[in-house]
Design brief:
Layout (H helix, E strand, L loop, with lengths): L2 H56 L1
Length: 59
C-alpha cells in the first residue's frame, strides 16, 4: 500500500465525518425553524380566539 492510498482513505474518512457534522447542524437548524413556525401559527390562533372571547363579552 502506497502513501497516496493511505491519504485517499484518510480523506474519505475526513469527508464523511465533516459531512455528518454539517448534516447534523443543518437538520438541527431546520428543526428549530419548523418548531418556530408551528409556535407562530399556534400563537396567532390563540390570539384570535382570545380576541374573539374578549370582544364577545364586551357586547
Amino acid at each position: 500500500m502506497n502513501k497516496s492510498t493511505i491519504w485517499t482513505g484518510l480523506g474519505v474518512i475526513a469527508a464523511v465525518v465533516i459531512a455528518w457534522w454539517l448534516v447534523n447542524i443543518l437538520f438541527s437548524v431546520m428543526f428549530w425553524i419548523f418548531k418556530l413556525a408551528v409556535v407562530a401559527v399556534v400563537a396567532v390562533v390563540v390570539f384570535f380566539v382570545l380576541r374573539s372571547l374578549v370582544s364577545s363579552r364586551r357586547d
